[in-house]
Amino acid sequence: MTYLTAFGLSVAFPLYHSDNRSLKKTVLGRxxxxxxxxxxxxxxxxxxxxxxxxxxxxxxxxxxxxxxxGKTTLLRTLSGIYQPASGSLSMEGRLTSLLDPGQxxxxxxxxxxxxxxxxxxxxxxxxxIARLEADVEDFSELGQFLDLPVRxxxxxxxxxxxxxxxxxxxxxxxIMDEWILAGDAGFMDKAKHRVEAMVRHADILVLASxxxxxxxxxxxxxIWLDQGRVRAEGSPMEVLAQYLPPQQFxxxxxxxxxxxxxxxx
Length: 265
Hints:
The radius of gyration is 20 Å and the shape is globular. The protein is of the alpha/beta class. The strands form 2 sheets. The chain has a 6-stranded mixed beta sheet, sandwiched between helices. The protein is built from 9 helices and 10 strands. It is 39% helix and 25% strand. Helix 7 (212-218) runs parallel beside helix 9. The chain has a domain at 95-172. Helix 6 links the parallel strand 7 and strand 8.
């Protein structure tokens, strides 16, 4: 049974140059309770504070909050990139995290070499890697650029390669930041159905996004993070009603009503 459970997760980042008196005065004067000292008496910023939730197969969790609220930190902690200062994290299922366009890519290697590297990382055999290469080549439409080192790619080409590789394999637990929803209009029009298929086939989804319409459409539950804490949790429309300005929420309600007659999932 696929599951993901976070209990009391807290993450803190030391401010290594905090011995400077003016910095301390400035930080402590504006901290609003988010800064503290760790057991080594270092000044730290509390990026996440006491985050708990449980997800089972079929759950879709969306994260909302202003920049710096802790959304990306939580995604990185769930993905194993950050170690929590306290609390625990347990899961069952194959996890894929899509947090950064360049995640897992070696810029000195060619596109082809990066595709094969991804296949090896996923434990694929030769036949599966060959299918992965064909799928990424067809979807990314990068053609002969796949023969070049990735450092020679434009930012848009990097997104195309990263997107094609990331969405070629369907995970059981999908951790996704909103970079995957960005890109040039022509490519994203083509990519929309591929993203939706990936979301639909994942057992569990955790998505952070500023696009309220996507969260209302794709998620069954939202958490509103504010200064590293959970400020509200509930159904998408309940949380968005608290989080969004009234006029913007009314637009989401109208869109939601239209989608109800022709749902994506």
